[in-house]
Amino acid sequence: MSEIYLPAILLDIPRNAVAAIGLPLCLGILSGSSTAKVVRGDWYKNLRGPPGRPPRQVFPAVWPLLYLSMGYASHLAVNALDTASSPLTRSDVKLGIALYYAQLAMNFIWSPLFFNGKKLGLALIDSVLLAGTTFYMTKLLDGPTKSQSTYLLLPYCAWLTFATYLNGGIWWLNRGQTPKKD
After folding, report:
1. Which of 12, 29, 88, 177 gives 20 to 30 Å between its CA and that of 56?
2. In tens digits, what is the pLDDT along the chain, a chain of 182 residues?
3. Domain ranges, residue 152
4. Alpha-carbon separation of residue 36 from 60, 76, 120 (angstroms)
5. Is residue 145 a part of any domain in this protein?
């Protein structure tokens, strides 16, 4: 397996716990900043949802906690990289950190796809890839962080599973409808 290259800044950011936590939190705020208007509009209110769809007020309460936990998990991952002596462990952690940034990007584009673009199918594809990437990242980082990152990432994995179910249900129940402008 070839060595994964990560630019120094991608390792330096999570070395600082505050920066590690702040990055996903800031990206989440930026990504979701335009959704408040959309979720109060007719398009969102008229979407049919699957069973178990929580009230919209749940999401802004849950996401910041998930961003904080994933950010701290990235801090633990870089600490594990810095102390790893085995080339295989270093390789797994580097791949896990690369996947961390990949899932951050997918997480960042989900809200604009779903809410602003009203592209439910594309958002669902993004959500499936996001969940799969996050599960694999969690697996890779488990051993090197002595399961500490897993405890932080499991709620995120569970929420992504639920969010993918919701996205899939909304896509299925509303397929064929033309999104209306709000």
Report:
1. 177
2. 577 899 999 999 999 999 999 999 999 999 998 898 899 999 999 999 999 999 988 999 999 999 999 999 999 999 999 999 999 999 999 999 999 999 999 999 999 999 999 999 999 999 999 999 999 999 999 999 999 999 999 999 999 999 999 999 999 999 988 766 65
3. 8-34+56-174
4. 10, 33, 17
5. yes
